[in-house]
Amino acid sequence: MTEPSFSPAKTSRRAILRGAGAAVAAAALPMPFIRRTQAAERTIRISTFGGYFERMFAQHVFPAFTKATGIQVQSIEQPEGAQFLFQLAASNKAGSPPMDICCLGAIDVLRGRAQGIWRGLDKTAIVNFTQLMAKFQEPQPAFDNVAAMSWYMTFVINPEELKPAPDSWTALWDKHPNAWGIMNGSTSQIFELTAATYFGGIDVLLTEEGIDRVIAKISELKGNVKLWWQDEGTMQTALVNDEVLGGIYMHDTAMIMVKNGTPVQSIFPKEGAVESTNFWCQPAASAKVAEAQEFLNFSCTPEAQQLIARFVGSAPVIDRARLNLTDQEFAAVSSNTPSIPAATEARYRHLDYMERQFTKMVTA
Amino acid sequence: MTALHLRLGVLLSWPMVALLGLGAVPFVLLLRISVARHDPNGIALSGLTLHAYGALTEPELLGALLDSIRLAVIVGAVSVGLGYPLTWAIARMRRRLQVAWLVFLLATLSLSDVLIAFSWQVMLSKRIGLSNLFVALGLMDGPESLTPSAGAVVACLVYLVLPFTVLTLFPVFSRLDLDLIQAARTLGASPLRAFLSVVVPMTKGPAMIAFVMAMVLTVGAYVPPLVLGRPQSWPMAVLIGSTALAGHDLPRASAMSVFLLAATVLLAFVAFQATRMRVRNS
Lengths: 364, 282
What we know:
Chain A is 39% helix and 16% strand. Chain A contains 13 helices and ten strands. In chain A, the strands form two sheets. In chain A, strands 3, 4, 5, 6, 7, 8, 9 and 10 form an eight-stranded mixed β-sheet that branches. Chain A is globular, with a radius of gyration of 20 Å. The two termini of chain A are 34 Å apart. Helices cover 74% and strands 0% of the residues of chain B. Chain B has twelve helices and no strands. The mean pLDDT of chain B is 89. At the A-B interface, helix 1, helix 4, strand 6, helix 8 and helix 13 of A face helix 3, helix 5, helix 10 and helix 11 of B.
């Protein structure tokens, strides 16, 4: 098996299989003992998605931050899934959030904002914010988050079984009975790629009738889909064992599979791969305002983004021209093909509808 | 005397307290959430509406409930069908072999259902799966993938519940008085007749209990149908999971859970009533 790789933001998926384990972890966030050598020592608690992801941040990214600023980082493993925000909202209200900065998928930023969990940030204090790609600097209703890293959902195939390799998402709809593994449910990027390929972009998903049209198009795929996967492990096993010819899968995990000798190829189709981004947010009740600003400022530097690309395996949120990544290092996490953005706004408004309609379609 | 009783009562009350804390309180919360208004941002424990229960009239969910029950009945029947002769065989083994079998069955309980479901996924795959063995034996023309399929789900679930079935039946089988069979044989009964008229009536009750237990364990099965089954036959538990975790619709997921729970209790009740009647009649 490959090294377990964790792409962020499919968090609820993984939570499903972790089941009770996640719930227990959530109930008792790890609180390693911090040694207080000097009263003046500055510290900050930063949480990221658990497992490989958190280990890589703790081993490679946070030490560079400590070296640059002298601020000690207590790295915390974040519980996954829906319960994370529920618990954070409660602990924030009680005045004791378990971390000073956490890492979130775009939709959880909006959910947290609606509940007033996030502290408004001071843009002038985060001078490196302007180093981010233009799309991550666009004004929002509230300046309470900073882009941390991205990941891509690509067209992953077994190149030995599928020749020639497709260059468009439309190949999913070609005649390939029982060939694909497609992510199941309302959070699946099949929504974005179908909308972008056949409906001129993701805005079609902003209304219920638009969602119905996209789902009708997805339903044409049913004969081609062998596996409607819910967690990435199922799809990985299916790819390793020739159960599927290909499907949609995480680019970073696919690249690790390639490294470990599995014959897979990750393709960025001409319409673009679907890009999801994770963001840093600070719970309002955290008192470490200055330290948080310094960390966010650090995260927006080429140095931090290079470390994240090399060790965490996520795509940088700074233009490639500013980074010293080699072609190979860049290709392992990202691509120059323009991406399809995640339909965060549509999901925030219509997630329950998307889930119901999708389930109806797929179980019919 | 009363003081002793009181002290004993306090000492023995902890299972009740645990049952209340771990069973009743979460259930009350589940009920509460199922009648709360839907809040996409979090758990809004506010409002009072039966809106979520409207979901239960949807044909898809009724279909999923029937799928859950059908799966439970099949797995219950297969695991008792396999477990009954297996337990009989284990009970007649030498002591050491018996212990080895029971330890083996207990050991499989230490594996998580996630691990077991993924192992079945690999075992039924095209590349290294069972079909390769069948090809080598000349039973199949070429290797093929045996998932997703209903058979894969049933096989995996039977593997999961079989230890419970055997461990439920074993005490009865091991205490079975073999002299009774001998007596029946002496009186002229054939081996089959002796088995049917002596062993079966004596083990009917426990077999029914094993069946109901296998069913109840299966009704809530989540990972095996998700990993090994087709969406068309995903049971209720899978839909509850996706409604809560992906759809963030907690009232609807809670209402579905209450419904599934009620159906399970009813199923178990009916099965137990049926056993009682049959045991009384026999």
